[in-house]
Amino acid sequence: MRKLFCLFSVLFLLSIIAFGQRKDNSSLIYGTGIAFRVTPPAGWAQDSTPRLMHGEHTVFFPMSQKWQTAPVVIFIAVCDHEGKLSEFIDKDLLSYKKTKKNIVIRNGNSIKTYNDGRAEVKEVLGDEYGNYEAIAYIKEEKAVVMVILSTKNEGRYNSNYERFEKVVKSYKIVE
After folding, report:
1. Which string of DSSP letters, residue by residue, matches 32-56?
2. What pLDDT, on a 0 to 100 scale, did the predictor assign at position 22?
3. Domain that holds residue 155
4. Is 64 inside a domain boundary?
5. Does a structural domain hold residue 83?
């Protein structure tokens, strides 16, 4: 019995080392047929339990806050999609236009990801609730990964945009 306990303990520790956060603090995230790592901003926590209404897989937020009430968050979402990225983005932005009034949608600068890919960025600014969001769309073979900076304050949006860029740049497929 003691040997069996030791064996399970070793296997448990190995699984933590293999699948948990690494020294670089990157987080392993899974979607359908995809696994990748992203690194949260320094001083930010992660919660992978939300699975909110839009299918977010994880959320990063300042450590001193709860993600539900944090003034700024970065969501990571994975959506199944085998078509063109432009089709996905158009459909996503159309849903914003249908549900949010007074928004301004503009093109952001694309961001180079860790694996020499590119993330297309759209900014959705100033809806009736005061939301400011930047959405990075990363196309993979059968999915689109979205990194979403969300805040209700233009100043916080601007002061956290660099953190958002760093999360996007840290994106790396796990093979």
Report:
1. TTEEEEE-PPTTEEEE-----TT-E
2. 46
3. 25-173
4. yes
5. yes
Pairing of strands 172-173, 143-151: unpaired
Q: CA-to-CA distance for 151 and 138, rounded, in angstroms?
A: 21
Q: How many CB atoms sit inside 10 A of residue 45's CB?
A: 15
In this prediction, residue 23 has a pLDDT band, given cuts at 50, 70 and 90, of: low
Name residue 36's amino acid: F
C-beta separation of 136 from 119 below 8 A: yes
How many domains is the chain partitioned into structurally?
1
Q: For residue 78, is it within any domain?
A: yes
- Report CA-CA distances (Å) from 64 to 43, 61, 69, 72, 141: 9, 8, 11, 12, 37
Mean pLDDT of 73-86: 93
Stated pTM of the model: 0.83
Please report, for the domain that includes residue 67, its CATH number.
Answer: 3.40.1000.10
Asked if the structure places residue 18 within a domain, the reply is no
